From TrEMBL:
Annotated TM spans: 119-138
Protein's name in the database: J domain-containing protein
Coiled coil: none
Region: Disordered, residue numbers: 75-113
Biased composition annotated in UniProt, kind: Pro residues: 94-106
Matching InterPro entries: DnaJ_domain, J_dom_sf
All copies of domain J, residue ranges: 9-76
SUPFAM superfamilies assigned to the protein according to its UniProt record, in alphabetical order: Chaperone J-domain
Superkingdom to which the source organism belongs: Bacteria
Alphabetical UniProt keywords: Chaperone, Membrane, Transmembrane, Transmembrane helix
Phylogenetic lineage: Bacteria, Pseudomonadati, Pseudomonadota, Gammaproteobacteria, Lysobacterales
Length: 232
C-alpha cells in the first residue's frame, strides 16, 4: 500500500520537508487535522468550511498511516535519508524447499528363465502333417479316382428349377404371382411404374419392361409392338 501513496503530496499538505524530524512531522499532521476537521476548530472560529475538507482529511489520514507503516519497517520517514550507521533491512528471500528425491524403485528378483520350448511344438506338428500327407499320396489310386468321384457328384447333383418368367398367354393370376400387385390397372393394362403388361381376354399379349422397374422377363418386349401408353 505504501508504494501507492504519494508522500510528496502529503509533505506539501503538511508544509514540511521530507527530511524533517518525526516530532515536526507529527506536529504538522495534528495542525492540519485541526484545520480541516470541523469538530476540532478553535472556539469562536466561524470561517468558511471548504466542501472538500472532509475528503482531504480522509486522504491525509490514509497517507499518514502509510507513512507510519513505512517508519516501522524502515526506521525513517518516506523520502528521508537513512540514519548514519544503520543499514536498511531487506526482506530475506524465503528459502525454497529442496526437491525431494524420488523413492528408489523396488528391485524384484527375476525368476530364472526357462528354456524356450514353445517353438518346438509347431515344428513337431508340421512334421506329423508332412508324414501323413506323404502316406496319403502313396496310397492314392492311380486311375484318376478323384475325377471319377467328381463326375459321380456332378451326376447326382439336382439342379434348382428356374424361377418363373413372364410369357405370352399367361393368366392374370400367374402374372400377379410373379410380378405382384400392379401399381395401377387401366382396363386390360396393368402398370408397374414405367413397366406395363397388357391382357386380352385375361391372357398376356404384350408387355414392356423398363430398366427403372424391370419385370421378371428376359426380353424388354415380346415383339415389335407399339406401346399402349403411347397410343393413349
Amino acid at each position: 500500500m505504501a508504494n501507492e501513496i504519494d508522500f510528496l503530496e502529503l509533505y506539501r499538505q503538511l508544509r514540511v520537508s521530507p527530511d524533517c524530524s518525526l516530532e515536526e512531522f507529527k506536529r504538522a499532521y495534528r495542525r492540519c487535522v485541526s484545520t480541516l476537521h470541523p469538530d476540532r476548530r478553535p472556539p469562536g472560529h466561524d470561517g468558511y468550511i471548504h466542501p472538500r475538507s472532509g475528503q482531504r482529511l480522509q486522504q491525509i489520514n490514509v497517507q499518514y498511516e502509510a507513512a507510519m507503516e513505512f517508519l516501522r519497517l524502515h526506521g525513517r520517514l518516506p523520502g528521508a535519508p537513512p540514519p548514519q550507521g544503520v543499514t536498511p533491512q531487506r526482506a530475506s528471500p524465503t528459502p525454497r524447499p529442496s526437491p525431494t528425491p524420488p523413492p528408489p524403485r523396488p528391485t524384484s528378483a527375476r525368476a530364472p528363465r526357462r528354456p524356450q520350448v514353445k517353438w518346438l511344438i509347431p515344428i513337431a506338428l508340421l512334421a506329423v502333417v508332412i508324414l501323413f500327407w506323404g502316406a496319403s499320396a502313396v496310397n492314392a489310386p492311380a486311375d484318376g479316382g478323384a475325377d471319377g468321384a467328381t463326375r459321380d457328384n456332378d451326376a447326382t447333383r439336382v439342379e434348382a428349377p428356374a424361377p418363373p418368367m413372364l410369357s405370352l398367354g399367361m393368366s392374370q393370376e400367374n402374372v400377379r404371382a410373379i410380378e405382384g400387385n400392379p401399381v395401377e390397372i387401366r382396363d386390360d393394362l396393368w402398370e408397374y411404374g414405367p413397366s406395363w403388361v397388357r391382357f386380352d381376354h385375361g391372357s398376356v399379349v404384350d408387355w414392356y419392361s423398363s430398366p427403372l422397374h424391370s419385370l421378371k422377363t428376359v426380353q424388354a418386349k415380346p415383339a415389335q409392338t407399339e406401346s399402349p401408353v403411347a397410343r393413349n
